[in-house]
What does this fold into?
Amino acid sequence: MHHFKYHNNVLHVEDVDIINIAKDIGTPFYCYSTATLERHYSVLMKAFSNQNSLICYAVKANSNQAVLATIARLGAGMDVVSVGELRRARAVGVPADKIIFAGVGKTRDEMTYALREHILGFNVESTEELEALSSVAVELGEIARVAIRVNPDVDARTHAKISTGKSNDKFGVPFSSALSIYNEAGRLPGIIVNGIHMHIGSQITSLAPFREAFNLMGQLTKNLRHAGHKIQHLDIGGGLGVPYLKNGDLPPSPEDYAAIVRQTIGDLGVKVILEPGRMIAANAGVLVTRVIFVKRTETKLFTVVDAAMNDLIRPTLYDADHEIWPVSESLSTNVNVLQDVVGPICETGDYLAQNRYLPVFRSGDLMAVLTAGAYGAVMASTYNSRLMIPEILVKENMFAVVRPRPTYDHLIGLDCLPSWLS
It folds into this structure.
């Protein structure tokens, strides 16, 4: 469920008219709904209310500080994968003891910063990382609390580029090697191993892969405890999918997901750490864009808009289909026509939708690309020297610019000429 609806023929975010936002700040822009962010978090929290658990929002999904602050004030921790994300989480007041540092390529400088912040723990992905973290911790006189990411070799049945739990993915240590690596970790100075981490992929729409992976982690927990390791928490990752198209795959509910967790690992007496990102942020955001031209060729209709692949790369990178609504509801009563919605970038891959039946738009019309709150703004770039677009947060009848549109002077001023060209 989200809080985007038509009122008096105009699409609203909660109680705010999108046309009025567009008049104030121009297009394109991202717009997020506070009520939707809060609802998605609360639904997940309620589903796990009878489980010893901690929800650590995956910052990589949407790292705007206003979004982070909204979720943090509900009690969420944060899952970060870079020192930049860690700094963002700390900047909005997330307690360090509710932050998990994941990721396959942490540098020694990042380890140093995180150790000095005294974060809750590190999800470690290799023996090489274990040894480096041990060395840094000893140098600083700190202790690193560690969960080792174990790759269960489970097919999440998702897009190849967001699968993370198969044996040929770069993440984690092999399941077959886990016991020996835990034994090695137990001998390293500056390291306390107290958990297990797993993550099998993103945008998962079936419970079967989760059940398979959780069963494996449950057995591993018992094996490690039998070998003398004190496993206190199990970080089960994220990955629960969201509906992108009205008639697309429907993911399991948080309640059904929580039931699988209870059935598979609920008797282990561990604290369960969750890393939701997409399921909290995705449907809380839209990308609003304006039609520039409608171009007809002998074979196709192209609706050319002012947003592009550098603003929302998911359609061309992940073959993602985002639902598109006209901002003026009256357009939705028109006969839908097969078309591509494309941007101004000089790439054939610059599209927001391909071969989609949509209303016939006219120059100046506004459209909203739904389910754009996750992996939208965070993956944006300035390709073709296009400005990064603003982000807006709505709460009830108020809205605020939470990342302004930069100027061209700012963008071009980021470059520096060497002395021989000055």
